[in-house]
Amino acid sequence: MTNHELQSSEFYRVRYSGALQQLQDAVFSEVYDDYFGQSSWITTADYDRFFSMLEVARASSVLDVASGWGAPALRLARRTGCSVVGIEINHEAVASATALAEQLDLAARVRFELRDASQPLSFPDGAFDAICCFDALGYFLDRDRVFAEWSRLLMPGGRLLFTELIVTGLISNEEIAQRWPSQTFMISVPGLSERLLGEKDFKLTHREDLTHTLAELAKRHCAARVHHSAELRALEGDNLFDTLTTYRAVAERLAREGRLAHVLFVAQKPA
Hints:
Layout: H1 3-15, H2 18-28, H3 44-53, E1 61-65, H4 71-80, E2 83-88, H5 91-103, E3 110-114, E4 128-133, H6 143-153, E5 154-167, H7 173-179, H8 192-199, E6 203-209, H9 211-227, H10 229-236, H11 238-256, E7 260-268
Parallel strand pairs: 1-2, 1-4, 2-3, 4-5
Antiparallel strand pairs: 5-7, 6-7
């Protein structure tokens, strides 16, 4: 196993550990107003606003790609009444999300499956009315293939919603290493997603710059981690604590200086 793989493994061991969940809730409650369990660069108010853009109803079926601990998928189901399938590559995350769905009495409408979303999926053509992917697109190395697969899975007229990070200025190799310390991550450039969506015949219906929110949440993350540093260091260890705090600090700096953007895309498959 390479050093990179070891670091990534350690990141996910802590990220989805049962020991972290109670502490994470305390830390993240200081980051997000009306925290509901998310861990992305997205506020609760924006999640709810984005869900409305999917235009789904009780009869609709939604695919949540890289669903993590499952909080956004469960919130979507509770707010709209739709059915949701969350797919995630980490088995601890899937187990935690499944347990939470049962706890919230949503297991009949929301299920979580262990799947690698970078590979072809076994769902039938047109299986979903909508697909969402929050802050995970960069982990897929072949974005063109992923967009093609999402197009296949959407029914005619179905909606696609995703967020991603886009390089908008000069970033040093040191900053790249600090900002993406644990996993392989493909950083997009302006215009790429628009072009790839167009090649798959998607119609882009909405594009929104969320960079200011990224900077503010990153700042809050750093402050909350400092506030809970003793407990976090005990769980994560000094090296991982410093790494995870630094990557958030670098994210804030890059966003505030206009060198890294966080962008929302909404697109529709032809009817």
